Inverse folding.
């Protein structure tokens, strides 16, 4: 299915343009094919996969030779089959790009043993094995999480806690950054908690709501780094007065207007645009990459309509956040 036929409700003018591009310009030697693999239920997620799509849209408006296709898979096996079909098939037109995200796809990339032919592969928000033609990107979140604590303190929040889905390195980095910011501005913290010791903790919204209800008796704000479990924390906050939440991965203000103070976001769209721009100049940096707030690929997005004045406070603390991240990296 062409990318131009997806997400009309979210991007109707752009979707119409992409439909014209995809239908009038089938792959040939002058076009560059971009294929995006979506896990089941991820299209229209207002998160990573919408961000990937925005990056493609921005690039396609600048580079009309791009022809995009997407595949939404119902099961992991179907996703594996789609990856195998794309990566072991012929390159259509100029050097192409296959984009995937999500840890569930990593084993399938490994199973191909770097047999990608002449294809280029971009794997986002995770580290894949080093292969020719494969770039994997992870995102530094310490600095924007630091800023989240600064924003809460400016709002008048006195106490907070971080709740993680599981104690993995990516989750812990969010927590470390937030807690460093809290210590810097004198925000009181309760000891961090985890919902589980494995990935099940990212899908426990009822447990998260129960725990948040109890914690909100002692704290004013919770920073849930717990995937889908964060919905439970939001429900608990919205049932109270004067309780706040920090969003994770994407701008989650729409989930709780007046409750979600700010969100620590990963700008996958920036990565996609940059990689596609590089390909247009015959450049592709293979291997694992790490990017963050210094590069403009992560940030704290403030819900300024409901919390006026916070943006200036956050901007004034950016240098301190970057320096704190540098110090944290030096002792890791």
């Amino acid at each position: 299915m062409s990318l131009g036929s997806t997400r009309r409700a979210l991007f109707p003018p752009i979707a119409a343009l992409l439909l014209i591009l995809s239908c009038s310009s089938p792959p040939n030697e002058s076009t560059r094919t971009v294929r995006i693999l979506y896990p089941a239920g991820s299209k229209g997620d207002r998160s990573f996969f919408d961000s990937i799509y925005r990056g493609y849209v921005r690039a396609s408006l600048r580079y009309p030779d791009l022809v995009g296709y997407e595949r939404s898979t119902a099961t992991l096996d179907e996703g594996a089959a789609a990856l195998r079909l794309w990566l072991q098939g012929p390159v259509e037109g100029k050097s192409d790009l296959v984009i995937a995200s999500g840890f569930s796809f990593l084993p399938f990339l490994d199973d191909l043993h770097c047999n990608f032919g002449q294809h280029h592969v971009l794997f986002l928000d995770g580290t894949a094995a080093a292969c020719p033609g494969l770039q994997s990107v992870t995102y530094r979140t310490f600095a924007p999480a630091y800023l989240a604590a600064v924003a809460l303190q400016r709002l008048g929040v006195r106490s907070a806690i971080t709740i993680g889905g599981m104690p993995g390195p990516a989750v812990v980095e969010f927590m470390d950054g937030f807690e460093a910011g809290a210590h810097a501005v004198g925000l009181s913290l309760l000891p961090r908690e985890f919902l589980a010791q494995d990935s099940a903790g990212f899908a426990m919204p009822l447990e998260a709501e129960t725990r948040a209800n109890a914690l909100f008796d002692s704290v004013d704000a919770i920073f849930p780094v717990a995937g889908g479990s964060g919905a439970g924390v939001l429900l608990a906050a919205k049932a109270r007065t004067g309780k706040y939440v920090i969003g994770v991965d994407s701008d989650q203000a729409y989930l709780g207007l007046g409750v979600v103070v700010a969100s620590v976001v990963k700008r996958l769209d920036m990565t996609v645009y940059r990689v596609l721009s590089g390909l247009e100049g015959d450049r592709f940096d293979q291997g694992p990459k790490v990017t963050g707030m210094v590069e403009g690929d992560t940030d704290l997005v403030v819900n300024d309509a409901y919390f006026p004045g916070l943006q200036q406070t956050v901007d004034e603390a950016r240098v301190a956040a970057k320096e704190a991240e540098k110090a944290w990296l030096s002792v890791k």
In short: The chain has two domains: 3-139, 142-266+296-330. Confidence is low (pLDDT under 50) at residues 1-24. The radius of gyration is 21 Å.
